[in-house]
Amino acid sequence: MIGFRRLYGASPLSLLGSVAAIAVAAFAMAQMFQPDVAPFPLNLVIWLFAGALLHDLVLLPGYSAADRGMRAVVPAGTVNFVRVPLAISAVLFLVWFPRILDRQPQNYERALDHPPPDFLGRWLVCCGVLFAGSAILFAVRRLTAGRSAAARRSAP
Predict the structure, then answer these.
(1) What is the largest CA-CA distance in the chain?
(2) For residue 155, which of 61, 90, 139, 147 sits 20 to 30 Å off, Cα-Cα?
(3) Which residue blocks in 10-156 are alpha helix, DSSP H?
(4) Which of 146, 126, 150 is nearest to 138 (CA)?
């Protein structure tokens, strides 16, 4: 009898996780198309389709080229220590750019009746914390790797 891993290519838990993720996504989509959430479902379909096109035709080639350029500059062992905080910072900027760039602060004041906080400063602090944490993690990994390599060399 041929094993499950050989037929499927992964463990049964992987299949179970994939099915669960698809079920959650299907439930979310079903909720999105409820009349009280999307009174005009065609608008939602167009928005989702346009978002997929924007991602696949503009964003994916853009961040792939940026990643390739970064790998040419950054040493091979440190790529992920730069890539992860940079990606998180970019997503934060993408979500909050109107506030970060202080676009139309009068709308914020009219809605909440007080001036907006310094979103640019907060974003810069968040980026600094992400990169500092990544640098600390890199240093710890480098030190522990150096010690374990030295211990292997000195072992008989």
Answers:
(1) 73
(2) 139
(3) 12-32, 41-54, 60-73, 79-100, 105-112, 119-154
(4) 146
User: How far is Cα 126 from Cα 120, in angstroms, rounded to an integer?
Assistant: 10
Q: Which amino acid is located at 55 in the chain?
A: H
Per-residue pLDDT tens listing for the chain (156 residues): 468 888 888 889 999 999 999 999 999 998 988 888 888 888 888 988 999 999 999 989 998 998 999 999 998 889 999 999 999 999 999 899 988 998 777 888 888 888 888 899 999 999 999 999 999 999 999 998 877 666 666 666
Q: Around Cβ 41, how many Cβ atoms within 10 Å?
A: 13
Q: Is 134 in contact with 85 (CB distance < 8 Å)? A: yes
- Domain boundaries of the chain, sorted by first residue: 1-32, 38-73, 76-156
The model carries a pTM of: 0.66
Helices 79-100 and 119-154, axial angle in degrees (round to 10): 170
The burial class, CB within 10 Å (0-12 / 13-18 / 19+), for 44 is middle
